[in-house]
Specification:
190 residues; alpha+beta; MutS, DNA mismatch repair protein, domain I; Trna Endonuclease, Chain: A, domain 1; 5-stranded mixed sheet; 6 helices; 10 strands; 25% strand; globular
């Protein structure tokens, strides 16, 4: 009995070991390992490449770094801290922090969130328990800061994109404390 408990504990500790990755330009590439591919298989983080590595977006990488599931190395094989990675990501994407707040909040709520550039939105979100490829996303999400403004044309364009892709429109409004409030917008006929 004690031997089985010890083996189970060793397996759990092995799973908790963070996956090594490298920061490469505007993406993060993991090592070629079962643990890295498990990030994709379990929760659909990133995209599996032909060489067995997983390519992560900057948002996914920062989230996994914050959750201690990933170690990101620089060109000198030194770990990059959360703050340094965030600083680099903000240089590459000016709206990165607002997008990250929404990404993190949705992931923490148990949903899978992926980019939606081909739809003309920031993100697409899948219902809990649904993985990309198994079914379609339920929502498209636009992250905005509470102090930002949208014209009626921009607002209408976002709504039209959601309607034409048969998805619900969510606006994730991030406040000064980085808390997110969601607004679902839809067309109604009077």
């Amino acid at each position: 009995m004690a031997k089985k408990k010890k083996e189970k504990k060793e397996k759990q500790e092995a799973k908790k070991k963070p996956v090594k990755s490298v920061f490469a330009e505007e993406r993060v590439l993991t090592e070629n390992s079962d643990e890295a591919r498990e990030l994709y298989n379990q929760s659909r983080y990133g995209t599996i490449l032909d060489n067995g590595k997983v390519q992560l977006s900057l948002l996914e990488a920062l989230y996994l770094l914050e959750k201690d599931r990933l170690v990101i190395l620089n060109g000198r094989n030194k770990p990059i801290t959360f703050d340094k990675f965030l600083k680099r990501a903000k240089k590459l994407e000016p709206n990165f922090w607002i997008r990250y707040c929404v990404f993190k909040d949705i992931r923490n709520r148990g949903y899978i969130i992926k980019t939606a550039l081909k739809f003309g939105a920031d993100f697409r979100v899948y219902e809990r328990g649904v993985k990309p490829g198994e079914d379609h996303a339920k929502w498209i999400v636009y992250p905005v800061h509470e102090a930002s403004t949208l014209t009626w044309y921009e607002f209408s364009a976002k709504n039209r994109v959601a309607h034409s892709t048969r998805k619900r429109l969510l606006v994730g409004c991030v406040d000064e404390e980085s808390d997110v409030t969601y607004w679902e917008i839809k067309w109604i006929r009077p």
